[in-house]
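User: Predict the complex with zinc ion.
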Amino acid sequence: MKIGILQIGQTDAQTVNRVQENLKMIFPKTKCTLLPDNLPIPEEAFNSERQQYRSDLILQVLHDYAEKKKELDRLLGIVDADIFVPDLNFIFGEAEYPGKTALISLWRLRPEFYKKKPDPDLLAERGTKEAVHEIGHTLGLKHCSNPFCVMYFSNSIFETDRKQSLFCNKCFTKIQAITGKRGQEP
Ligand code: ZN
Ligand code: ZN
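Assistant: Here is the predicted structure with zinc ion placed in the model:
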């Protein structure tokens, strides 16, 4: 499997690099590359009332980009903006289920957002968890009831911090079954 990471708008290169390195460890049989392109955040995604960006509209732009990149199996977009979907106050990320395209935002992963001191290690760890979670959705995984599994739904940063960046045994077995069918391994 080949995962491409694409930065959308202004992001934090150091965190993006560290997420990339972590993904290589978590998906050892996967080639994980940082794409040289940088897409702007689509203007229509900005909601001036909420001062937030519509995640589904950003995901659509990613989807269109991924269509042109046949060599990639998955595309992970990383944005540094407050994203939402109409039903929720905010989201950490969104993905096609199943599909090729996933999106995470660093905005609410920063300790500073919660009035804490900056912590690059913690930020990279949170970014990795959300990235693995969304890639899991693209592979066809649903949310998991195990609060320590990466596929657990994070409603708050507390839940992100509590879970690990790895799949529980149940989810890992599912991923192997899904990807095995296609002759690929995660
Ligand atoms: Zn999810
Ligand atoms: Zn699980």
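Residues 133, 137, 143, 153 surround zinc ion (ligand 1) (CB under 6 Å).
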